[in-house]
Each structure stands twice: as C-alpha cells, then as structure tokens.
Description:
16 helices, Growth Hormone, Chain: A, single chain, mainly alpha, globular
Amino acid sequence: MALGRPSVNRILISIVIGSGVLMSTISQGSLNISLPEIAKEFDVDLTVVQWLSLSYSIGVISLVLSFSRLADIFGRRKFYLLGYAIFASGSLLSSLMPDLWMIVAARFYQSIGAALVQSTGVALLVATFPENRRGQALGINATFVTGGILLGPIVGGIVTELVSWRANFYLPVPIAIAAIFGGWKFIQEHPEKSSSKFNWLGSILLILSIAPLIFALNQISHSGWAHPRVLSALIIFSASTTMFYMSQTRSAYPLIDFSIFKLRPFSLSLGIALLANMARSSTQLLVPFLLQLAIGVPIHHAGMMMAIIPLGAMSISLVGGWMSDFWGPRLPSTGGLTLISIGMITLGFIDSEASYLHISLPLLMLGIGQGLFMSSNSSSIMGSLPRNKLAIAGGFNVWSRTFGTGLGHAVWGGVFAAIVTANADVQTALNAEVEHLMYGFKIVFICGAATTVLAALLAATRGKTVTPRAIPPANR
C-alpha cells in the first residue's frame, strides 16, 4: 500500500482498523462494569469471577506474538478479517453459556479472535501512514481505544440495569460485521512479507509459560505459595520459560528474535508499558467494585463514572501523539504517568461517603494521564524496530498492554482478596464490611501508584525514537 494514498483512504482504513479496538474495548468495558453483578448471581468471590477477564487475557497474551509472526509470513489482512469473525462468534457463545466456567471457556475462544485483530491492526495502520505522521496515526488509534473504553462501561451499565449482563455480549457483534465488510473493501495486503518459517514449538511453549503464571498469581492469595497446585503451576512456568528461551535462541526461525531487545528504545518502551498497564489494571478491575459495593453507586451511574477515565484520555490522546512526533516520547509519557500516580493515590484516600465530584476528579486525572502516555509510548515501540518488523512491533505493543493488564488483574485481585479476608476474618472478600473493603482498595491503589512512579522514572530517561534500518544480529 503506497504511502502516497489519498488522505480519504487513510481515514477510511483508520476507521476500519479502529473498529477492531472499539469492538474489543467495548466488550471488555461492558464486562468489567458488570463483574459485581455476575459475582452476585453465581455467588463467587472476586478471584473466581475475574477469570472471565483472565481467560481472555491468557489467550491474547499467549497468541498475539504468534499471530504477529504468522501475519508476517502469510499476510496481515486475512488474519485481521478472520479475527473479527472469531471474536463475534465467541461473544455470541459467551451469552448462551449457562455455567460460569463455560463462559470462561467461551471467553478464551473469543480471545483468539482478539489476538488476530490486535496483532495485525496496528501494523496495518502504521503501514498506511508516512513515518513522520506515525504519532498521529497512533493518536487516531488511541482515540478509538479510548472511545471504546468510554462507551463500554456506559452501555454495559445501562444494558445490565435494563436487560441483563448477558446482553452485553451482543454489543460487539454488529461492529464486527461492519468491520469485516469495510476491511474487505478498503484494506489491501501489504507487500512486505517474511519468507521465514513459523516456530510451532515456541508458540506452544509460550502458552505453557503464560497460563500457569497467571493461574499461580491468582491462586496464591487464598492457597499460599506452598499449595501443590500453585507449586505445580510455578514449576511448569519456570520449565516452559527456560525451554522457550533456549529454543528461540537456537532456532533459525524464532518466534521471538531476542536480538530486538538489544535496541534499548524498544526494550525500555516495552518495560515501561508493562509496568504502566499492570498499575492501570488495579483501577480497571477494582473501581467498579469500589463504586457499587463500597460507595453504593447504582450500576448505570457507575458505568458513567467509569467512562470519565476514557473521556479524559480521548480529550488528550491526539495531543500526546503530536507531542511525541515533535519532541519525542519522554515529555508526554513521563507527564502522563505522573498524573496517573497522583490520581491513584487520591483514589486510595477517598471514603465510602465520598460525593460523585470527589470520585470523579481522580478518575479524570487517570484518564488524562493515560491519554498522554498511550499514544506516545506506542509510537516509541512501533518506531524502535525496522518497518519490515511492524507486525512484530505491533504484536509486542498489544502484548505489553494485555500482559501487563493480565498480570495486574491476577496480582491486584489476589492482593485485595487476601487483605480484606485477613482483616475482616471472612472467607469471601466481597462479603466483608465496607470499612474492610475500603482498606483493601486503599492498599491496592497505593501499590499501583508506586508501580506507576517506577514507570515514570524509566520514561524520564528516554530520548527521541529513531527507526533503525535493521536489527542487530543475534548471538547464537
């Protein structure tokens, strides 16, 4: 696809690709706001109901890099369109399953479609724009991300209140159908394809590394480190991770070419994204429970309040992209992360009698901070690898967001449950008194803020991104 393509076609392609992130973020946002209702209906604790999110995260984390490599070999467009079809069918299956764990399985299937869409979408978008407008392209994409995050909790809260939480699973279906038609019509296959072979062993070992880790982190809070299932999961994780690294460094066609981590801008930006998304996930997971269980906000109002975060991000994301293009990612990334940490600390010290205004201000700070950070850090990740590795860069960009969020959900959900059950002397954290719930929220949000500060300190060391012509050779 030529870089000189008329701007109207770039806009149309941006809309089609933006539909992918809109679809997945609406799905996630509507689910997150309804988690307290789902936990109540199935009479389960936070560490159980959150598997609706964790199973989805495991699928995307495990598969997005593999699909990025396959897309480099076979073409990004066909993978992208297939992803929409799988995501929509997975969403319909989730709505029909009668049992919680059957819904968890359907969510994993849905994540396969999400991984296909997310691993190729950003690469298709960046390939459409010239290099000096990469930040603007990613700013447009970030606007769709925040738009979906904005609509997800609002629509999810209203739909759950008026119909049922199951009805939320129908929301992504019309978007997927429209995106399949638009993608077939407007997106062309990019000529840059890789001649390498796919590393099936690496793909399997990656799944066997990630799933046991998230399972162990989820179980530690109530089972302890010494429990046989936790120890077994950690042993599988350690063995699979070691075998994965050894197989990739010796393979002629590695799933992950570890030489890319010699490029400091790429490694640093990826590490910052992991920390930031891990910290951000504490509010994504727990604020709906804070609003509905501790403060007593009705679910439709809670959805509107959660939408303050993406509204703030949407209002500033394009500015973050432009700032990154002109001055590099250091200023918008560091400033955004600093604002996020302040918002988290403020949120940690509100009480159960807080007014809507007192809750809204820290949520707005979180949103503005995320808007500044997202587009600038994504631009740094995408610009740190050669253009023929755009799919891999896009895959890592999505992977850092999903892996950070998945790890964060497992860690923060477990920490919250452990703190509350220990202090309230109850078996189920969500059944504790409000004062014990508030203490758990406070500790988790302060820990999230500390993680964000660490990410901000790393971001402050980063200069302007320069796209390399090639990756340094790997040491074999």
